[in-house]
Description:
The structure holds 2 protein chains of 2 kinds. By secondary structure, chain A is an all-alpha fold. In chain A, 54% of the residues lie in helices and 0% in strands. Chain A has helices spanning 5-12, 16-23, 27-34, 42-51, 56-59. The termini of chain A are close together. By secondary structure, chain B is an all-alpha fold. At the A-B interface, helix 2 and helix 3 of A face helix 3 of B.
Amino acid sequence: MPNRLREMRERAGITQEELAAxxxxxRQTIISLERGKYNPxxxxxxxxxxxxxxxxxxxxxxxxxxxxxx
Amino acid sequence: xxxxxxQLVKYLILALIAGLAIWQIVKGDRSFGTGLLVGVIxxxxxxxxxxxxxxxxxxxxxxxxxxxxxxxxxxxxxxxLRIFVIGLALxxxxxxxxxxxVQVNPYNLLGICLCFLLGLYAASYYYYNQKI
Lengths: 70, 132
């Protein structure tokens, strides 16, 4: 799923590890999310959007063609 | 049950298996006993390496058992099972028609199947870890 995670993280000046610690996941998960390879659960998407004071729709962009993790 | 208690149970089971291995060596079945002992040592080493990694991540506030890890484990288990079932079905089918009739020790056969399934799971986990 395409998203603006990297852009927002870099704008906020935080590292992948710091972001991972804030939302309680591993750094690998943040890397996968930024690459658009992994689709987060609604809970994680909510936590991430809360970190950047954005709505989920602003942070994660729904690509109609790919809605699966696999 | 907490993770520490689970670890304790795991080490108790490993100690029991190590005891069985030593008993087998003393009894005369050296190859089986040695294999079992090597397996126990490998399991202890791998558990310790994983524990250290988990501790390091926890100290940094990271979660080593996050949703991606669970998702990977699920995908890997399904992938391994799929290959295992298809592989087994093919072996049974081909073996029943063209293969020779052989007698095998069922425990050895089950052990080989278990190793094969675990190997497939590990390979599948590695594959999905690279993919997502």
